[in-house]
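Notes from hallway chat w/ T.B., transcribed later so I don't forget. T.B. wanted the structure written out for a chain they're using in a teaching module, and asked if we could keep both sequence and structure tokens in one place. Agreed to drop them here.
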Amino acid sequence: MENLSVYYYRYLRYIQAKDDSTATLNDKYMALSYAVRSQMVDKWINTQKKYHQENPRRVYYLSTEYVFGTNLKHNIINLGLEKSAVAAAENLGFSLEQLYDQEDDFDLGNPSKGTVASCFLESMATLAMPAMGYGLNYDYALFQQKLENGMQTEKPYDWLHKGHPWEIKRPEYTATVEFYGSMHTPNGGGSQKQVWAPSEKVIAVPHDFPVPGYGNETVNTLRLWSAQASEDFLPDYQHHGDYIRACEEKFQAGRITQYLFPDEDVKRATEMRIKQRYFLVAASLKDIIRRYKLHNSNMLDFDKKIVIQLNGSRCAMAVVELMRLLIDEENISWEDAWRITRNVFAFTCYVTSAETMEKWPLYLMEEIIPRHTQIIYEINKWFIDQVRGKGKAGKNVLRQLSIIEGSEVKWVKMSHMAYLGSSCVNGVSSSQTALMTKKTFAPFAKYLPVKIVNVTNGIAARRWLLCANRPLANFINELIGDSWITNYHEIEKLEQYVGDREVMVKLGDIKHATKRYLQAVLKSMFNISIDANSFLDIHCKRIHLYKRQVLHVLYILSRYLKLKKGEETGIYRTHIFGGKASPSDFLAKQIIHLINIVADIINNDPLTVKKMRVVFVPNYKVSLAEKIIPAADLSEQISAANRESSGTSNIKYAINGAVTIASRNGANLEMSDRIGQDAIFFFGHSDNELDKIENYKPYEILESNPDLNAVFSFLEEKLPSFPEGSMINPLLASLRDMDPYFVLYEFDDYVHKQKSIDELYKDRFTWLSRCLKSIARSSWFSGDRAVHEYSKEIWNLE
């Protein structure tokens, strides 16, 4: 392998057109990234060549969102270039950390599904699976969060404004995606095939990103589509003849991938959202069929070589689009097309209740993609006929099963569509899969048996431990060797050191070093001060009522008021919050405002110095998470038990040695089973117990609980003294009047468990033993394990 320094200078001069005297840090980052990319190109080409030569059964992963964070450091590690990169940096006189900080986050989605998708692609490459991902290449990624007077404001995030060294544009593989228009039946009627005359065409331009496996020769591909207006003007140009107007209309047609919808807007089924979702699946399926036809001639065998995993219901239109392509363009009968389609697709379902299901308005779909609404009606009719043919089914049952709901305004239930069009449906945690089987899709089991399995989410330990927490990873290598990096079950060998005092001292030193590093990062980036000697209680994730950051805040205020009265509350805690609220979620934005007001009160009170502190870290993202998570003492995983499908941040904290306080939901329950309850402090009620509560009156709990009453009274007194503090009143009113996520109901148990955590932390040796146990028993939650289960239970890869 040629010296990395040689490649670096080549790209600095011939791509960036700079030398040492003129190069900025960003120029150096770009040059080093191109140098690293050059080391994987041969592997990338050879991997694709191997797939073409062997023509294996391949899995295509469809997701509207991918969240990788930054890639330079991770790619260096996976390609085994770390020693070369360190030597090159020393030789060239720059700091690798400085260059890592130049990279903008690859943040194309909301954190939950996007992070899982990215972890899975990395695991597929590491396990050398013939796989490929598809997504959207948004011009503006998830917004940047700014704080003004403690309140969230949003700025667009142009993540490509400095260029992107990992992206390769592939204009030779563009696909045309069509919208609107009219339908007619060929040959005067009687045919299943229909002719669609679209009135708008948009060009899908692919951009390929390499996904290298760790320590092997495999480099898989993530293909992201950008929308570009076609060269043709819209049909009405011939009538108005206005060239400038025609150019502007043409530009509008190419806006489909301009911006990413924040997660809370999922219920706002706008025209652009529907076009965005369909654009992804239409371009991807055309590309998949093109690839299939390179080595296979019979489309009736399509399902023997192809499996497509739908990451959530947002990709459900792929079912309908494949039916359209098979029937209208491949001249396959409806029956054969339906058989092929159901064999090709598998569906990962994240739904926890009927209220969280995605639905699209039928009237908009009929306008935007008219042929697809015909097929949806046909699929629905086929299914309802199946139901009627199997015995008595009342109108209520038929309504539950129908893809289409409503009377005057009809909606298409996308989860139902994905379920009916798939051979296998999987949940993402044992509790969510059970909920899905017993409730969400229970009516379907009798009339259309579909294989339902559970594949608990996993995370990429190579990113979240090896890359994010190198001091801990190096210490693990010293104790048990490095085979855990590709065989994560090997991490279990650490358990033999639980209780070893020398190991515990070293583990404590590493944790303290990560705290000092975080202390420096927060000071440098945001001028936020924390004490590295304090207990770091971390609550960083998307801000939402059901995530229950407000429960944590009420606890902080209760603790603060007791300190003010002279009561001893335990250890010195620093409470660190981070996360974004959807721009349209006003109550979530009030939570951020409340956190910052509470931080202002506590941090400026001389009585609480060295006893407690509260900070909110703005613009939380993966690159920040990689610095915050390793430093955590306590991980807050306290979402409402009946709303969290799985969660992966809980796993990231656990593998970095944090103790967890958790509600009884999602992967928290499985973490308890596998890691043990001595490293997880459960509080509250199960989803079944919460679902059974009737006539819940939160104001009665508030009136009868002195601590809660004191907190609310304190806020009512203090909020008016802050600029726009009264804006938080709707949030407090929602807790008093409705409390839909049982914050007040579970407050006492949460406080009780926090006291137990204080007591445990005072026993340093026992605390560190539990931290090491958490790491050692986290092997089940590897992304490699999850992907292996997908391959074995669903994909049937060779």
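Follow-up for T.B.: The first helix runs from residue 4 to 14. Might be a good example for the class.
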